[in-house]
Structures are given as structure tokens and as C-alpha cells.
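Deliverable D5.2: sample structural annotation.
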Amino acid sequence: MQKNIEVRTKTTWRNALKRDWQLYLLLLFPIAMVVLFNYAAYPGLRMAFMDYKPAKGYAGSEWVGWGTFIKIFNDKDFTRALRNSIIFNLGDLLVSFPMPIVLALILNELRYPRFKKVSQTILYLPHFLSWAIIGSVALTMFRPSSGLVNIALLNAGIIEEGIPFLNSPWHWAVTYLLIGVWQGMGWGTIMYLAAITGINGELYEAAMIDGAGRWKRMWHITLPGIKSTIVTLLIMNLGRVMGSNLERLSAFENTQVKEFQYQLAVYIYNKGIGNGKFSMATAVGLFQSLIGLILVLLSDRIAKKLGEDGLL
């Protein structure tokens, strides 16, 4: 009996490059962007350890070591910005993170394909709007006296006077977080919907035969099927607890909410560009990145201890 013997030739990098050179050529552009904006700026981090003066450059500026960090940690403005950033980012995580999961589960249960596609398109749209546009729309919607929301509530007799959604610190905080949920929840469903499509359909069929309803199928099949995706995205989001978005904060800026609006992104902008203290701004940015990295590594380790795959 004659056996067919399959001969496999080893693919060398030269053969791969010759065969797929167009793909490698296209890959050069994103790699160049990553190297340029993510790695080429690394030598500038030494400003955090210098009393950097643009006129003197790196060679002429005085080396102060950890002096810049000591100055930052003794700065009351930094303490206030750090506190606000942590509180609002944790609030964002608690409010915004579960919503894409819930929304993905709801979209997955829709049985009319055209309605499902239209709904997804509408929900994705806010992600592509700049915060300047979102801030303008929010100002139009939530003005205390002439905003559309307050007018509707007043006409319905629900309230007797306008609610200061964007003018009172605590109202501003709630509005700021909820608008963040609205802006990001549609786009956040993409990963979860992709994970749901990877679940074996036979599991749902077996559950239906056993009499499981939609809720039980969702709880016992869909959620466990996307658990690894949820854990991975949660770890990545924990790395952003120290971050803040200057564009978003600027879009909702007003003098009456300065106490809450003043976060690390505003601090870095004011110190670095406004006051010309480039060393302090660089040191704060480096501090944010290191804390974010530590949080990611720590949460990844905890996830692995609990039996999840984690990131690394």
C-alpha cells in the first residue's frame, strides 16, 4: 500500500517577504507611527529629572534628580488634581464599564437583523463626535433656564425650577459621568459582540431543549462565554485610573465647577504650557504612566491567581 508523504518546506523570512511584500510594506506605516509617537519621545523623559529651560536645552539645564517629584508631591494643586482624577476615573469605571456588557447582551437578543444593525449604528455614532461638539450639545440640552431637558421637565410639572446640571459641582459630576457613558457605551460593545459570536451555538440549542429561557441562557452561557474578554478589558481599564482627558474636561469647563473639573490633564496643561514648567509636567506624566503600568501588572497577577488568563 502506497502512502502519500506530504513534504513541507520550511518558510524562510526571505520567502515570506517575497510572497507578502505588499502586506509588509503596508505594515511599515503603522509601525513607524508607533515608533515615532510612542518611543521616539522617550529621551525627553529626562526632563522630569532636570530643571529644564528651553533656551538652555538638555545640555545646559541643571540636573536636579528627584527634586522635581518632591516639589510636585508638596504642591497642593497636584494633590487636588490627583484626588479628582482618581475619584472621577473610578466613577467612570464603575458606571461606564458595565454598560457596554449590558448593551451587548441586549443587542445579541434582538432577532430582527435590520433593526439590530440600525441600533448599532446609532449607538456607535457618539464615539466619533469630538468632545467639543458633545460639550456644545450638552450646554444646549442642560442649561438651567433655557435647556431642552429643563424646559421639558418644567412643562411636565416634574420640577418647579431648573436643575443646574452643568453649573452645580455635584450635578456637574453626575452629568459628566453619564455623558461619558452615553459617548462610549456603543463603541464598547464591539469587543463583547465579537466575543459572543465565538460562543458555540450548540450550547444554546442544548439549553433550549432543556427548557432554559432567554435569561438563563444569557446568565449561564453568554456571560461565562465572554468572561475572559470582560477580565481583559477590565485590566486594561484599570491602567487608565490615573489618566484624564483634557478635551473632555475642557468641553465641560466653567468657573462654578473648577473644584471638580481640575484634574491631572488640566494640571499638566497649566503647569507645562501655561507656566512653562516643562519638568513638572513631564514628571506628572511619567508618574501617571508608572502607576498605570503597576495597576495593570497587579490586576493581571490577581486575575491569574483567580484562574483567569489575564493579559500576559
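Annotation notes: The longest strand covers residues 50-51. The chain is about 70% helix and 0% strand.
The annotation will be released with the project's public dataset once the embargo ends.
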